[in-house]
Amino acid sequence: MATGQPIYLDYNATTPVLPEVVDAMLPYLREHFGNPSSDHVYGQRAREAVARARGQVAALLGCDADEVVFTSGGTEANNLAIRGVAEARGERRHIVTSVIEHPATAGPCDWLEHNGWTVTRISVDADGRMRVADARAAISDGTALVSVMHSNNETGVLQPVDEIAAEARTRGALVHTDAAQSAGKVHLDVRALGVDLLSIAGHKLYAPKGVGALFVKRGTPLAPFMRGAGHERGIRPGTENVASIVGLGVACEAAVRDLESTTAELNRRRDALWDQLQAGVPGIELNGHRTLRLPNTLNVRFPRVTGSAVLAAAPDVAAATGSACHAGTTQASAVILAMGVDPESALGSVRLTLGRRTTDDEIGRAAAALIRAWRAVTS
């Protein structure tokens, strides 16, 4: 990061756009501005660019290009998957999800519940992982969809999606997973996962904001929740955002190319940060499973303080707490509480998430700043 700027450790919130992504997008903001639906050469160029990006996204997910639907982001992709399946399978009025979902999944599930569907929310264990046995017990012959995240946005904990999907198949339920946090950080293969739908968000993997994609397994019943023309095979109407779609494609290509090396570096730096924090903050605790988590994500609990107080005393570090502030009061993260952490301790949580730009020097400086901040607040 630039000198004088806070150390950015909030990559799970959003990522900077890769230079190669910007370079790929610029021609489609300038000379190649055609509508992909047009028959002339301008439209043809745009159409070819969208098709190329569709293939790049498919390569990241392990699916066929015609199973990729472009959206405006992860939130729209999740809404399309959840509400689209619910409408298409109206004879089944039951949804299974978890208590730790991102609002982009929890919101549409809440909406369905308000409109007559039954929603079962399965819990997690002390490590932040869903219990497969609980999912098995929840799924019935009336379940239309099981929607569970691939990895949690706060703790980074990887969920047993493949095992839950196997249980769902025995009851005829479809499976959707929100993989917005996982894409580009861990290997994704929709066939191995056994899912019918999978969502990604461009700005989580170094593409621009405002673009995402939904994998829709061939033959999956899905009703569009927006009405319009026949774009994206009639599933998602609206003229395609060509430049951003191009950017998403290039970002996915970079993710495939660099996954092994990037994962190794993120793991090493994340663990170095944890080691330094443990050495400087007696009693600090890790939130979530020690190994089954994203390579870039470290969620910790500082003792005897709130996470917001630590971050306020460490302005050189840009990170997040996961806590919600309402009317002058602070509420602990629902994700951390779901793991059985008591509310007072949960308020000490801070999420530190690394990215491609994070350096060893930044890790050392961030650890030192957070340790100083904790000591200042507790002294």
Please give the radius of gyration in angstroms: 21 Å
Q: What would you give as the CATH superfamily of the largest domain? A: Type I PLP-dependent aspartate aminotransferase-like (Major domain)
Beta-strand proportion: 5-15%
Number of helices: 12
| CATH topology descriptor of the largest domain | Aspartate Aminotransferase, domain 2
Total E-strand runs:
14
Question: What spatial form do the alpha-carbon principal axes imply?
Answer: globular
Estimate the helix proportion, in percent. Answer: 40-55%
The level 1 CATH classification of the largest domain is: Alpha Beta
Span between N and C termini? 31 Å
Give the number of domains: 2
Q: What is the mean pLDDT?
A: 95
Would you give an account of this structure?
This protein has 379 residues and is an alpha/beta fold. The chain folds into 2 domains: 7-15 and 258-378, Aspartate Aminotransferase, domain 1; 19-255, Type I PLP-dependent aspartate aminotransferase-like (Major domain) (Aspartate Aminotransferase, domain 2, 3-Layer(aba) Sandwich), CATH 3.40.640.10. It has 12 helices and 14 strands. It has a 7-stranded mixed beta sheet with strand order 2-8-7-6-5-3-4, sandwiched between helices. Strand 6, helix 7 (190-193) and strand 7 form a beta-alpha-beta unit. The longest helix has 39 residues, at 242-280. It starts with 6 loop residues before the first strand and ends with a helix. The relative contact order is 0.16. The model has no long low-confidence stretch (mean pLDDT 95).
